[in-house]
Amino acid sequence: MNEIKKCLWALKTKLEETYHDAEWGVPIYDDAKLFEALSLELCQSGLSWHTILNKREGYRAAFNQFDLKSVAAFDDAKIEELLLDAGIVRHRAKISAIINNAQCILNVQQEYGSFSAYIWQFTDNKTLVGNWQSKEEVPASTDLSILISKELKKKGFKFLGPTTTYAFMQSAGLVNDHTTDCFRFDACK
């Protein structure tokens, strides 16, 4: 019997495996879903991905299903409320960054029509394929993630260094970093 091959990181927990099998690397074009991916990746910084996936529904509830206009309007009182919410990681700088980034995405939408159009222009509107044989080959950041991080910062985005930006690119399908032996590799090309 042939065993289905998967990226090794996805085998840590059932939650990570389910996310890997259904979502990771699948191209996202919807601005609210891109905002969610961007927000979850910035929240993951310094923590395990499992921790963030475990709190994903809490984030969705706390940030109104990642409705951009709603989140962009959050004020200091809302930040204080969120700091008491056990359903999310209670980190003031990360919460503030999510709100700030919602405001930045609204500005990008005014300029480019959508955040999707803006972010996908960096890959010429196609998924970049890693063709990695092993997880050790997969980079933590690339020249492109460094460039995108700098461009996002110029537009006022926060908490999005090159490594976090690259993780966002992977999750949103801008890059396909499934290893070549993973059953999802061809599906996400």
UniProtKB/TrEMBL annotation:
Pfam families: Adenine_glyco. Keywords: Glycosidase, Hydrolase. It is an enzyme of class 3 (hydrolase). Its EC number is 3.2.2.20. GO terms for molecular function: DNA-3-methyladenine glycosylase activity. SUPFAM superfamilies: DNA-glycosylase (SSF48150). It comes from the Bacteria. This is DNA-3-methyladenine glycosylase I. It comes from Psychromonas arctica. The lineage of its organism: Bacteria, Pseudomonadati, Pseudomonadota, Gammaproteobacteria, Alteromonadales.
